[in-house]
Amino acid sequence: MKAHFECVVLDCPDPTTLAEFYHSILDGEVNRPDRRWSLADGGATLHLESGFVLLFQPVENYRPPQWPDPAYPQQFHLDFAVPDLDEAQAEVIANGAVLLDDQQGWRVYADPAGHPFCLVRDWWTQQGGHQIQNT
Q: What is residue 66's predicted lDDT score, i.e. its pLDDT?
């Protein structure tokens, strides 16, 4: 069997706020009409130009992960390659992220719902590499 990847689903207390936060990082389109998902339950989506979709679903009594606390494990996280860490950091913090850890070459943040994500240096592009385009 070969499956088709549909989306990544993130639990959160406020789906629209989180969709807008990730829109500020990735661009794309928030809540594009899509027959695959009903947003009647208060959920939100972010459709990216690549075809990738993030789905944000509301959860009552949501408990965010605590990085790096194993009692509230991160379970997964997203990495975003950026050309300038300082510039990207200023933007994500202005949009509601919180810096959790700063290492050489990568930084860990919590999004507005507490999910950890990383900004990393885009070494490939800086070394003259070419991004692979999905067609």
A: 85
